[in-house]
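Regression test case RT-17, inverse folding.

Input:
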């Protein structure tokens, strides 16, 4: 077979993901915090990018140098006025010069505000602190440290005494003694092996262990209490339901997870990306740009040094293109966000007027077709974004929900059905709670929609609402 060179034309389509395009796509799905960090990082790395100053845009406002000069003159004038009084009073002044000097030195030597903030206590640190204050031997302290290190975040000890004794190279009797001691630490009941043991430790600490019925209920009948089997318990102990209610109140006052308050984590606050305000029957969209710097090209772009070095020229051009592209990408991101929110407000106007019960079914394709963009773009711009509405703060993804067909051929959003189910359960009679089948009948009557019992149960479970048997209050 002979080898030969041949030229031919071929027409193909391919998508080239340039670094600039990848950056623009990444900016779409960043949250406000992540976006601010990305911009700050780019400001540090790119010498041709800077933050624009608003005061420079106002020609009537005095410059920073003039303002600094006026402040200095005012300060000197005030200092000269006070100097005469200090010289006149001398040692009879209420604050002498030595005291003032010591105060200034103390302020300089003080640590920063961040360094003075105390971190949130952990369960291990809280228990170890109490362990060190206890009159124990070195062996018991060593065993206690191993026990505390084996306690889970909710305060339970899931390691056997034999394993702890082997790790600590001690005997089982010493391990049990230290476990009993740690269970008396704050919070009471920590290091328990079972919920029954945890509650019994707390009952003993409160001197309630003198009642054998209470002790027996906690030891053998916690499952019956969970499943609300009150009448068989009342017959077994030959007490009335009111007396059983008193025992139940005591048990409910105990803490079954003593370590939970140390592992709750810090609260995360959400800063909305968009605000929606109602004004004269219409809704105004305002983008939240607080904390996002206004970028502009630096003056260095007009004063580029003339160089014949090819690497330096490539570096300058690359950084200038990067700065210009970032500014355009940020503008495009905000513009896309505004268009998506504007389309959501148009589709979900009933929600902004009446609330969650009026939420209509909506999918990404509806918004994408309305604003002439791809679904992937809408999906990215609605990720990790929050909107402040007259009815609360919601994630943008919240407004996209599936549809449920009504008897008249119209559609209703699944979130509206969930909201109505939650409302019906909150208003029910706790002694006669609504069953899933009854809730389905009410939904058919109010919304004209046929929802099966299992569908109601699925929605109820998704909202972490227990069944009717567990919601029922006997007393």
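Golden output:
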């Amino acid at each position: 077979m002979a080898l030969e060179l041949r030229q031919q034309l071929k027409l193909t389509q391919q998508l080239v993901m340039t670094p600039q395009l990848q950056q623009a796509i990444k900016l779409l799905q960043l949250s406000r915090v992540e976006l601010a960090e990305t911009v700050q990082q780019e400001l540090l790395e790119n010498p041709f990018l800077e933050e624009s100053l608003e005061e420079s845009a106002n020609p009537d406002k005095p410059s920073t140098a003039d303002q600094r000069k006026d402040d200095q003159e005012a300060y000197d004038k005030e200092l000269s006025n006070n100097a005469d009084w200090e010289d006149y009073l001398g040692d009879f002044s209420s604050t002498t010069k030595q005291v003032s000097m010591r105060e200034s030195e103390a302020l300089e030597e003080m640590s920063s505000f961040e360094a003075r903030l105390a971190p949130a206590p952990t369960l291990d640190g809280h228990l170890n602190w109490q362990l060190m204050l206890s009159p124990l031997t070195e062996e018991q302290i060593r065993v206690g440290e191993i026990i505390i290190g084996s306690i889970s975040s909710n305060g339970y000890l899931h390691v056997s005494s034999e394993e702890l004794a082997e790790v600590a190279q001690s005997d089982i009797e010493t391990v049990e003694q230290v476990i009993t001691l740690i269970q008396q630490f704050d919070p009471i009941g920590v290091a328990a092996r079972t919920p029954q043991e945890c509650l019994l430790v707390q009952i003993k600490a409160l001197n309630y262990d003198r009642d054998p019925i209470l002790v027996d209920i906690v030891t053998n009948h916690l499952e019956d209490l969970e499943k609300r089997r009150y009448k068989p318990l009342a017959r077994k102990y030959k007490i009335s339901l009111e007396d059983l209610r008193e025992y139940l109140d005591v048990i409910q006052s105990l803490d079954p997870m003593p370590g939970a308050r140390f592992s709750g984590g810090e609260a995360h606050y959400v800063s909305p990306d968009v605000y929606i305000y109602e004004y004269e029957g219409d809704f105004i969209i305002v983008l939240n740009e607080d904390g996002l710097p206004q970028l502009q090209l630096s003056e260095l772009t007009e004063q580029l040094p003339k160089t014949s070095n090819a690497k330096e020229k490539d570096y300058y051009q690359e950084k200038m293109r990067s700065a210009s592209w970032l500014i355009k990408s940020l503008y495009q991101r905000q513009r896309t966000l505004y268009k998506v929110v504007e389309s959501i407000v148009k589709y979900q106007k009933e929600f902004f007027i009446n609330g969650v019960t009026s939420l209509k079914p909506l999918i990404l394709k509806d918004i994408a077709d309305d604003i002439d963009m791809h679904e992937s773009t809408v999906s990215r711009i609605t990720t990790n974004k929050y909107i402040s509405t007259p009815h609360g703060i919601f994630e943008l993804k919240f407004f996209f929900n599936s549809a449920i067909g009504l008897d008249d051929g119209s559609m209703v959003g699944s979130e509206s059905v969930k909201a109505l189910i939650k409302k019906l359960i909150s208003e029910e009679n706790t002694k006669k709670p609504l069953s899933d089948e009854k809730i389905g009948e009410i939904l058919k009557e109010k919304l004209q929609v046929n929802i099966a019992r299992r569908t109601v149960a699925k929605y109820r479970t998704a909202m972490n609402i227990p069944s009717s048997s567990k919601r029922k209050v006997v007393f």
